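Render this sequence as a predicted structure.
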Amino acid sequence: MINEANIRDSIAQAMERHVLLEIRYVDKHGKETVRLVRPDSVKGSVLFAYCMTRQAERAFVISRIQEANLTDQPAPTVEETEPGHDEDSFDLDALLEDIPKPRKGVSDADVEDFIRTVKWCTYVDHI
């Protein structure tokens, strides 16, 4: 049985130690792959990581990660894997102005976090 807490702990350790993580992942179609990734962040149930195997940013649903093992391989920096990446080139304030008011119970911080995630995903789609 997969222990999601152990998977999350391995992700956190890889991020803290700046090393690559080897994951065994099952996609939504049931296809299993082994990936070598640089974990960048965790948002809820999703791991955002640079996949060394695919040479691109990827999002992995944590509950679909079957196994996660730390490696002793240093993780490359964002600058090494994404030349020209400039997070400041996106105008978050302009994006926030264009969205409707959030529903009751949703804070401005939640909206900003969501926009940052969308911005990151949009950037990744254009690499």
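Summary. DSSP finds four helices and five strands in the chain. The helical segments are 4-17, 78-81, 92-97, 108-125.
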